[in-house]
Amino acid sequence: MNAEPPVTILAPFDGWCTGLDEVPDPVFSGRMLGDGVAIDPVSGILLAPCAGEVVTLPASAHAVTIRTPGGAEVLVHIGIDTVQLGGRGFAAQVKLGQVVEAGQELIRFELDTVARGAKTLLTPVVVAASDGLTIRHRRAAGIIKAGDVLFEIVQARDVVHASQVTQTSDVAHSSEVTHASASASSQRTVTVQLRHGLHARPAALLAQAAKALAAEVSILAHGRTANARSVTAVMALGVRHGEEVTFTARGPDAAHAIQQLDAALETALHMESAAGHATTGDRASAVSSAVAAPSVAAAAMAGENSGGAVDGVLRGIPAVAGFAVGRATRIERREIVVEEHGGGMAHEGAQLEQARANVRARLTRVGGAGGATRREIAAAHVEFLDDPVMNEAAQELIAAGKSAGYAWRAATRRQVQALEALGDSRLRERADDLLDVESHVLLALMGEARPMNLTIPDEAVIVADDLLPSELTALDRRRLVAICLGRGGATSHVAILAAAMDVPMLVGLGTGIHAVADGAMVIVDADAGALHVAPDIPALDAARAAVATRLTNRSAERAAALADCRSLDGTRIEIFANLGSTADAVAAVENGAEGCGLLRTEFLFIDRETAPDEREQRDAYQAISTALGARPLVLRLMDVGGDKPLKYLPLPHEENPALGLRGVRTALARPDLLRTQLRAALRVEPFGVVQLLIPMVTDVAEVITVRTLIEEINAELGNGPRIKLGAMIETPAAALNASALLREVDFLSIGSNDLTQYTLAMDRGHAALAGRTDALHPAVLKLIALTANAGIEAGKTIAVCGGVAADRIAVPILLGLGVRELSVVPAAIPAIKRQIRAVRIADCRALASRCLELGSAAEVRSLAAQTSITSGDAP
Ligand code: PEP
Ligand code: MG
Q: Which of 34, 323, 408, 579 has the fewest CB neighbours in a 10 Å radius?
């Protein structure tokens, strides 16, 4: 950076700016990686802090370094200990070597996922290669917006560093080094034992050790040499666990230098194992607020996903649990090339129309030939095909002279980007569906069609970067034993389909998936999130035996899940499912749900531009009810506002949306919408199977107003007897006033997610507080106890439908407090039933009353974890 003007470094995201001293990692707080600042982010999009080249970007995408044209290297490390997430929750938006503009998107990350798995989200922004450079005009602590200036990098005057002097003597091959210098030289080859290879922290330790030495030290790996003093150069070697590196030192203290580098690696190893313990013992990874949590925690604990297999194992996220042995079968997707320029508006418009008609007919055929899940997904694809926004955009492009294919692709990609920008993983996964429809249309334009059947070998384990729903449905189920994807999401449509087809599936296996050879025998442990890529014969034999045993046990397990649930002493506990779609309802029944304890109706219509009318709502509710058979369906009335905005219902801006118009307050402010929903719900047949649940209740008056409206509509519809009505206990006010509410309703359902948020005054979506927003806080437990006691006195049901109901540690405590009904995500049901069957209510009561006396959620968890009843294996 010779006579370069100052380089301005910009905030990569919104958040809170603070000093590096605040970062709980000596590598950063001790400035080992360089000087800079730290930011606690509040958004999940990392923007380039300056223009330059991306010089480090690990496969796990948790950090990135930009080299400015002047040679300064700026490292942004998202959170601390995030390498252990193995890429889970991160998605790089650029490639290594790419030249980027300041402010360009570099990495997207899911704040929630990362916060749960990280020690902290505090993100250091430091000048990693800082020889001859210093920083000035450092931003003071406080709120910061993306793009605000963080600091400036300038040349430090009168500073001459050893590395500047000796850089030219750096050589490419270690063998040349030994005799290249008149002074002593020394060399040692070591195997890197670090789980995540030479990532930021070990690279910093090596660089720090190297800087203290007089000797010139280089590190050779993969045929490339890096100056050991440069953190980014070491990181850029991309050394992974188990790989060899050669240290070479030249100079008077060469032998000592090698010892120092060895010692630095040793320190890194100790730090890693200490961090590993801290993370695996961290409550955040143990809390399960939904079924995904145990698998996600397992993946986090499993650690690695930095690209390659470690000890022959690639780690991923279980999307569909199961175990399989089979032959890796690669599915490569053909890139469809489209001409940009079209043959005139009329011609291209007609072509697109025809192609869409062909695809529509085909989707209808495919949907009709499959089960409920396949039918629903095909119907969703027809929706995309006919989406007015996309069709309008495509028509505009055609009018501008583009070809039909070009126009359709551009319109689709625009929508994909819009979905991805919402930062909601559920919506982001819908992007795959759009891409699926895109390829159908492009093929149709070429006069082709996606083959309905793809030939695969027996025992096929599909290995691909990602898979589209139509690609999955084209596979022969009889030959398919598992699916392993490098990318993908656990709630994508393809995962839902795989679950419906009962095919074990792993997602997020990373780029290491590319190295799995076509035809290789592999073992898929989708329970543990592991793909064994090079099993030996004994391992394969053992795995085959395990598959056979599972098959034998399976029918017994299913039968057990379908049976009623009683604790060891015979107390009946009802287990319901939380649903957001018809596919969920199918899964719920298969998993032994006794009905639906919470239908989040707003989820049915979340990605729409217009409000669903009465008929559409009624059809959706009826479909779910039909999928549930005669089982009860607790339908929650619109819970809009706060953390659940709806596109078609713009609400006025509020300073504190969580404390403003949400839940029943929104419903009462928009009686037109509430009336439509009530009419739709009350028309589901047979009448009475649907029970209604009012969200976010504070006052008895709210319940009475809704009930009056229900009675009015029932009279209009000529419905018979009263329908069951419940209120959610999500505010401390509702819990404290449960007895009064019970005089007006038939049941109460505790929404522990919101009840915790409002009791602890901690935003449920606040990343930095994620580890403390815990429903097992004794204050929340006291409110649950109060509600349960009111229920017992009134002889009415008290259910828990918040995330805590699926938390293994919490279940005995809830039963001990008097809760007799739980509603959880479908996949959690068998395990919860198994756990409850092994506990005695008297033991649960004893545990619960001790928990009520404690001072924090951590103490509750620790006490509960020490008792055998939380394991479900009690005698
Ligand atoms: C809750 O608050 O616990 C609940 C079940 O409702 P939601 O998570 O949909 O707000
Ligand atoms: Mg809620």
A: 323
Q: Is 801 among the catalytic positions?
A: yes
CB 435 within 8 A of CB 450: no
Burial 458-496 (b: 16+ CB within 10 A, else e): ebbbbbbbbbbbbbbbbbeeeebbbbbbbbbbbbbbbbb
In angstroms, the CA 577 to CA 560 distance is 17
Closest atom of ligand 1 relative to the 753 alpha carbon: 3
Taking the whole predicted model, whether its pTM rises above 0.70 is answered as no
Give the closest ligand to the alpha carbon of residue 749.
1
| Ligand 1 and 752: CB distance under 6 A | yes
Ligand 2 centre to CA of 114 (Å) is 22
Q: What is the maximal distance between C-alpha atoms in the chain?
A: 102
Instruction: List, for residues 440-453, the tens digit of each pLDDT value.
Output: 899 889 887 666 56
Find out whether the peptide bond into 686 is cis, omega within 30 degrees of 0: yes
Instruction: Yes or no: say if 202 and 264 are a contact pair by the CB < 8 Å rule.
Output: yes
Best residue for ligand 1 mutational test, from 602, 754, 776, 814 (most atoms within 8 Å of Cβ): 754
Q: Which class for 262: exposed (0-12), middle (13-18), buried (19 or more C-beta within 10 A)?
A: middle
* CB contact burial 596-620 (16+ within 10 A = b; e otherwise): bbbbbbbbbbbbeeebbeeebbbeb
CB proximity list for 458: less than 8 A, separation 6 or greater? 327, 479
The CA R_g of the chain, rounded to the nearest whole Å, is 29
**SS3 (DSSP) at 734:** helix
Is 484 one of the annotated active-site residues of the chain? no
DSSP state at residue 332: P
Kindly give the distance from the C-alpha atom of residue 747 to the centroid of ligand 2, in angstroms, as a whole number: 16
